[in-house]
């Protein structure tokens, strides 16, 4: 993948801030589709709520009803966690040649991941407080997941990156 700085694209730079969350959600849906395979479905979501008091309560409000916060582990930089997870953590295994370095599907998934990160950077400064979330669930949650909670501008954001296989 090239070292193109996606944040320099006018679509990212000039997007209305209120439009950016939907841009992220759209890019996440496309990335889900690219990474989908039989018995391998990704669920990538971005949710938000105002912080009106307790961080745990705000995060709990963003989770499915059957889930609760098991732990919030501070991370120094949210983009490091997102960059480490996308797309590599979610790459399907049935067609290894399709996902090898420099293969077209891999390049596309990496570009979409970089685009998501660039858009998130419009919402979340690099210095925003961030945590990795561990979830306890009474029902099914995900086979594997990376959940990142970010506090920025009085809002609590939950980026959920999960896979069902």
Helix/strand layout:
Elements: H1 10-13, H2 20-35, E1 42-50, H3 55-62, E2 67-75, H4 78-85, H5 104-123, E3 129-137, E4 144-152, E5 155-163
Antiparallel strand pairs: 1-5, 2-3, 3-4, 4-5
Helix pairs in contact: 2-5
Can you walk through the features of this model?
There is one protein chain. By secondary structure, the chain is α+β, with helices and mostly antiparallel strands. It has one domain: Protein Transport Mog1p, Chain A (3-Layer(aba) Sandwich). It has 5 helices and 5 strands, in the order H-H-E-H-E-H-H-E-E-E. It has helices spanning 10-13, 20-35, 55-62, 78-85, 104-123; strands at 42-50, 67-75, 129-137, 144-152, 155-163. The chain has a 5-stranded antiparallel β-sheet, with helices on both faces. Strand 4 and strand 5 form a beta hairpin. Helix 2 runs antiparallel to helix 5 (104-123). It is globular and about 50 Å long. The chain starts with 9 loop residues before the first helix and ends with a strand.
- Give the strand content: 25-35%
Number of helices: 5
Distance between the termini: 27 Å
Number of individual domains: 1
Number of strands: 5
CATH top-level class: Alpha Beta
Shape: globular
Could you list the spans in which at least 5 consecutive residues all have pLDDT below 50? none
CATH topology: Protein Transport Mog1p, Chain A
Mean pLDDT: 92
């Amino acid at each position: 993948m090239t070292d193109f700085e996606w944040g320099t694209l006018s679509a990212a730079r000039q997007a209305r801030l209120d439009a950016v969350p939907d841009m992220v959600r759209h890019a996440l849906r496309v990335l889900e589709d690219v990474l989908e395979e039989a018995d391998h479905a990704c669920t990538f979501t971005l949710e938000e709520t105002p912080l009106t008091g307790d961080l745990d309560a705000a995060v709990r409000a963003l989770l499915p009803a059957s889930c609760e916060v098991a732990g919030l582990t501070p991370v120094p930089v949210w983009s490091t966690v997102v960059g480490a997870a996308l797309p590599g953590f979610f790459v399907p295994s049935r067609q290894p040649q399709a996902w090898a370095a420099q293969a077209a599907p891999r390049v596309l998934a990496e570009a979409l991941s970089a685009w998501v990160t660039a858009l998130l950077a419009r919402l979340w400064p690099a210095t925003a407080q961030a945590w990795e979330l561990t979830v306890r669930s009474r029902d099914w949650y995900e086979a594997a997941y990376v959940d990142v909670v970010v506090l920025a501008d009085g809002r609590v954001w939950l980026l959920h990156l999960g896979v069902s296989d």
